[in-house]
């Protein structure tokens, strides 16, 4: 099976080719603009949370995006 993930440089070139600003992409996907820049610069590992979601959306890694429900978040807060 062929690896379809992209490098950060490929993602940046894709943004440039399409004329899309990274900040606009972040806004459209309701994610942190600064986190997108950090991920593309290689400063984040993208193992979980919003950084994982961004990396998957950008095509930097394969993975599944699981949106957490408020019930799960409430239960975790009570357990902490």
What does this structure look like?
This protein is 57% helix and 0% strand. The protein has 80 residues and is an all-alpha fold. α2 (22-28) crosses α3 (33-40). The mean pLDDT is 89.
Name the helix and strand elements from N-terminus to C-terminus, one letter apiece.
HHHHH
Helix content range of the residues, please?
Answer: 55-70%
Q: Which stretches are poorly predicted, pLDDT < 50 over at least 5 residues?
A: none
Q: Structural class of the secondary elements?
A: mainly alpha
Count of extended strands: 0
Mean pLDDT: 89
As a whole number of angstroms, the C-alpha radius of gyration is 15 Å
Number of distinct helices:
5
Cα end-to-end separation: 42 Å
Shape: globular
Main beta sheet: none
Give short descriptive properties of this protein.
mainly alpha, 80 residues
List the helices and strands and how they pair.
Layout: H1 8-18, H2 22-28, H3 33-40, H4 49-58, H5 70-79
In short:
The protein is mostly helical and 80 residues long. The protein contains 5 helices and no strands.
């Amino acid at each position: 099976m062929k690896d379809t993930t992209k490098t950060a440089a490929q993602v940046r070139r894709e943004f440039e080719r399409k004329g899309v600003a990274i900040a606009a992409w972040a806004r459209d996907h309701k994610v942190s603009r600064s986190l997108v820049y950090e991920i593309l610069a290689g400063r984040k590992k993208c193992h979980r949370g919003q950084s994982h979601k961004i990396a998957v959306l950008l095509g930097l890694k394969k993975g599944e995006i699981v949106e957490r429900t408020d019930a799960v978040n409430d239960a975790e807060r009570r357990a902490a």
